[in-house]
Amino acid sequence: MDHVILLPKEHLKAYLIKKITIEILDCINPDSVYLSGSTTAAGPEIIFTIFIDTLYTRPETELQLIADRILKPYESVVYRLFSCDYARDAIQKGNLYLLTHCTFGTMVYAGEASGSGFSMDAVMVQTLLVRIKDGFKKRMDHAGAYAAAVLQYIESGKYADAVCLLHMILELLFKTAQSFLMGRELPSKSIPELQDYIKVFAPSLGTLFNPTDATEVRLQVLLYSAYRNKPHLDISKADAERLYQKATWAQQEVSRLFEGAIRDCGDRANTELVVER
Q1: How far, in Å, are 63, 107, 150, 165 from residue 48 at the CA level?
Q2: Record's superkingdom (predicted)?
Q3: pTM, 2 dp
Q4: Which architecture, in CATH terms, is 122-276?
Q5: Are 26 and 1 contacting, i.e. CB atoms less than 8 angstroms apart?
Q6: Is 122-276 in the same CATH topology as 13-110?
Q7: b or e along 151-184 (b: 16 or more beta carbons within 10 Å of the residue's beta carbon)?
Q8: Most exposed of 60, 140, 166, 174 (fewest Cβ within 10 Å)?
Q9: Of 20, 17, 184, which Cα lies nearest the Cα of 93?
């Protein structure tokens, strides 16, 4: 089937982009497809954001398996797949990923009745950026309050309670980063799963715990068992302090990544909105 594909002008990998886009269109039948690059220096070179109309296509999980197969040969290329319903709701609430990679990304395909729709004026963009910053600050304030309580637990010798809170802090930080770097959080309570999920988009966070180091794996076990209130290995003050250091670094890194993502979105917005005028 022939499709009208809008390739970005003078892109160095235009042929590869066209090839992948054709495969996506033939195998997934999307509502629309957007092209962009990572907002972090160590992130993926090319990002395809694919939108589907769940009324007329197969379930999202099935389509993700197909997209995995299509993009597996290309190490520098990743994708995100969302339903149109999710995207419409998320962008209005202030989704930095969608604003950056779709509103100010490159649309390479749109069906005749495309339902994603990310165009907006400068006033709306600024309103969303304020909403996004406010939402991020609230999450970081929560993390900071938890961290203060962790120190109190450590000082009073309640190490299991401290580690339980540290699990909550790390979960919050990973999911916050996933939201603004990937467009959606992974619905998981597992720190290893949350870390693995984000590693392509934020390698720094993806290596917070070394999965091949026995000491690091033990710390993850302590996190999980303390959070689930299950019998666990003895948690020492040194364990709690080491996990606290990791959580402190992770919060600083998430803040750094967010500032970079906001700055990148602002730069794209200034360029795009000036061109439109």
Answers
A1: 14, 10, 40, 36
A2: Bacteria
A3: 0.91
A4: Up-down Bundle (1.20)
A5: yes
A6: no
A7: eebbeeebbbbbbbbbbbbbbbbbbbbbbbbbbb
A8: 60
A9: 184
CA pair distance 172, 151, nearest whole angstrom: 18
pLDDT (tens place) for every residue of the chain, 277 residues total: 455 677 766 666 888 888 999 999 999 989 999 999 877 777 888 999 999 987 656 677 889 999 999 999 998 899 999 999 899 899 989 999 999 999 988 899 987 666 556 777 788 888 999 999 999 999 999 999 999 999 999 999 999 999 999 999 999 999 999 999 999 999 999 999 999 999 999 999 999 999 999 999 999 999 999 998 876 668 999 999 999 999 999 999 999 999 999 998 988 877 655 433 3
Structure tokens at 226: 């303390």
For residue 13, what is the DSSP state?
A: T
**Left (φ > 0), alpha (ψ -120 to 50) or beta: where does 94 sit?**
left
- Please give the Cα distance from 108 to 117 (Å, whole number): 13
Q: How far apart are CA 32 and CA 107, in angstroms?
A: 8
Six-digit token string for 110: 């749109």
Six token digits for residue 83: 């339903």
Domain residue spans in the chain?
13-110, 122-276
Would you say 176 and 139 are in contact if contact means Cβ atoms under 8 Å apart?
A: yes
* Residue tagged 């993850």 (tokens): 220
Rounded to an integer, what distance in angstroms lies between the CA atom of residue 50 and that of residue 82? 6
Structure tokens belonging to residue 204: 């720094």
3-state secondary structure of 127: helix
What is the chain's alpha carbon radius of gyration, rounded to the nearest angstrom?
21
